[in-house]
Amino acid sequence: MGLFDRILNARAQVTNLLDNAKLNSAIERHERELERDPDNLGALQELGLLYQERGEPQKACEVMLRAATIYFDRLDFEQGMLLCRKAERLASGETRLDVWRKLFEINHRLRRYDDAFGRAKQIVEHLMELGETARAADFVNLMPDLGPKDILYRRELKLLAGLEADNVATVGQVSSTWQRKQATVRDPDEYFPELSVLIVDDEPGILNVLETSLRSLGPQILMASNGRVACEMVKAHQPALIISDLNMPEMDGSQFFEWLRSQPDCAHIPFVCLSSADSEAERLAAFDMGVEDYWSKPFRPMEIRHRVKRLLKRVRPPVDLQGKLAQVSLAEVIQMLEAGRRTGLLLLTRQQEEARVYFRDGFILDIEYGAARAERAFFRLVGWTTGSFTFRSLPINREPVIKLNPQQLLMEAFRRFDEVEHLIAELPNRDQTFICGDGFERAPEVAEQIAQEGEFAANIERVRQLFDGSRTLDQCCDELRDDLETLLLVQELINQKLLVPGQVIGL
């Protein structure tokens, strides 16, 4: 490091020390204010933000719950629930249960029985995951009446808590001793979303068959039509397994294999040969060269799938960190990986949803969640309070597309959360249906007018599908809580009467 670099580094360190000193001073000042006036809502909410900035989500959550309780005591339920939902994103373990109980109680008090049932279900499912069946049973047995659907809600909760058996008729159904039951839950040991497989063949039909066969195993499937293209893919993606034809133009399979073994970072990757020449001599020669396996064409796709599954199990790196988001919040997981300067892939799953977060040295390089990427994907994921996480240390060879550090991302996500909640609270007639009016074709023009530099584009097609007259405005907004830009568009479309009230739904 040169003198100029050392000076810059020293200045950066001094700046960080000054910023931390200012942050600690501000926290101490607000803590003293709360000692004098424990019900100072302004100090409580500011302190919550400061704790977040200092990377202490649990303390931030506790402060938000204190503020929420004061709002509830003052009968300001909406503001109290806003703080509870914000705390929910930070809380873990028993604290998250406390948040859910508080939200259950307030929703019940306001006779929002559907929402109360949703919170009750979260509580029971979480207690059952922890193995605390007695607490789950006590909660269900002591639960107050949940309105017109109480019998249905209570039965579902009793089933979850194991208090009732789900009696399904089985008369006349005989299961063979050898017949395997269809799995209802995907076995994580046979699913490999953190790995990639490179298939190399100059026949598009072979590529399509193999891609279709291996897709259900979960890996990213990379495809190349010859060895030269495959070399570039290996450099860019570092696949966990390579399946390559031997007879190809430009660079054949054996030349590709020789190049692979000449690369120190890639020589360890298992290499499987595909060949239509089922020659014993060629097979033995390939094994002598060090290939992993040799598969002859034509092949059975299901057999190939099982062979690949065994290979991926062998090369899969061990799990470094895993758990449930109901017990450890996503914010805490991200902060642990940042503090440990970890490099690898964080896999998040919730029912059939899946997201990948790529880390290098504790910084988030990129995020994939359905069609969303980068920051937009992150802002949607922060709302997850259920699901599972798994982190594996892996070399990550991709360019960073996220400029903010993890703490800045979290702060921006919570800022957007606040803006969404305030925006929804200001919308009128949320118990009515709204539909696209006669001038809705002007929606792209309106979206262009309200767009801000650096912000994401509003999803006009999503608005068109939601506002079809089958949902109240409140239900539509609930669907859009993870999409600030589209909500801003909805607000402006209502103001300009391009979204207009439909039939009033009776409550």
Report on this structure.
Helices cover 52% and strands 15% of the residues. The chain has helices at 3-36, 41-53, 57-73, 77-90, 93-109, 113-129, 133-141, 150-160, 204-215, 227-237, 253-261, 280-289, 301-315, 330-339, 374-381, 406-426, 443-450, 460-466, 473-479, 484-495; strands spanning 196-200, 220-224, 241-245, 271-275, 293-296, 321-324, 344-350, 353-360, 363-369, 372-373, 388-393, 432-436, 468-472, 499-504. The chain is built from 20 helices and 14 strands. It has 507 residues and is an alpha/beta fold.
Describe this structure in a few short sentences.
This protein is α/β, with parallel strands linked by helices and 507 residues long. The chain is 52% helix and 15% strand.
Q: Uncertain segments of ≥5 residues (pLDDT<50)?
A: 1-8, 10-15, 166-178, 181-185
Gap from first CA to last CA = 69 Å
Question: How many helical stretches?
Answer: 20
Strand order of the largest sheet: 6-11-7-8-9-10
Rg is: 28 Å
**Biggest sheet layout:** 6 strands, antiparallel
Quick check: average pLDDT?
Answer: 83
Shape category: elongated
Helix/strand/pairing class, anyone?
alpha/beta
| Beta strand count | 14
Question: Helix amount, in percent?
Answer: 40-55%
Strand content: 5-15%
